[in-house]
Protein: ATP-dependent dethiobiotin synthetase BioD
Organism: Catenovulum adriaticum
Amino acid sequence: MKSIFITATDTEVGKTTIASGIISGLINQASTNLTVAGFKPIAAGCDLIDGQLKNEDALSLMQVSNAQFSYQKVNPFALKSAIAPHIAAQQEGANINIEQLDWHYHQWQQTALDYLIVEGAGGWQLPLNESEYLSEWVVKQNMPIVLVVGLKLGCINHALLTAMVVAKMGGNIIGWIANHVDPNMQCQTENVKALAHRLNMPCLGTVPYLANSQNVEEFIDIQLLKSLIA
Ligand SMILES: Nc1ncnc2c1ncn2[C@@H]1O[C@H](COP(=O)(O)OP(=O)(O)OP(=O)(O)O)[C@@H](O)[C@H]1O
Ligand SMILES: C[C@H](N)[C@H](N)CCCCCC(=O)O
Ligand SMILES: [Mg+2]
């Protein structure tokens, strides 16, 4: 099983949208027959559905996947409040740590699957508890990382800082995706050019502002993405 970790310049800038696009793109690739699933280890902001806390990101990833797994496997840490997960965990009596993330990831590694698309929460440096970060787990597990840049004013700084810190931590960003989340952003082309020039990594796609995010996969170079994962 190959994994890809989806991080972003911020919360709410397209991780689920792009992760879903990558899952669909891998599944729909001509003359391949790949089994692909999504994993949203930590989700803050859940509703009680059939007596279980469920998050819409995890449900979206489950919907586009072509293999069925239990909700609990796809989203082991489901927190009710839509706030920073480590604060929600504290309030809700949950304990999130790297050891437990390792355990859940190990279960996926025992599963018959070609690709596991792992969606982060928030941006890169997301606290798990008082001393650990989600980023440390990603680096420990040596997952190839895709950086989603949500195009809005300020994203150049966020993208460059993220790329710098990932590299400093020993993480492996294989590429970035420009995601147009603000239809009114000025100088969009110039911003994408400025990012491409400074982010020293392949651009795996430029996703336009889409009224419905059904055909995101068309804008992602799935072949290039696959070629960058060992
Ligand atoms: N290319 C796009 N065109 C139009 N709307 C988009 C695009 N990408 C994302 N969005 C919208 O922006 C919002 C945030 O996107 P998304 O949920 O994918 O972000 P996220 O990074 O996964 O957020 P979170 O940090 O909560 O997990 C959603 O309403 C989504 O539909
Ligand atoms: C609730 C929200 N949609 C995300 N799932 C969590 C975002 C956490 C951000 C934490 C932070 O960096 O301040
Ligand atoms: Mg999301």
Observations:
- The chain has a mean pLDDT of 97.
- Strands lie at 2-8, 36-39, 42-44, 47-49, 52-54, 77-79, 115-119, 144-150, 172-179, 203-207.
- The longest helix spans residues 155-169.
- The chain is about 35% helix and 20% strand.
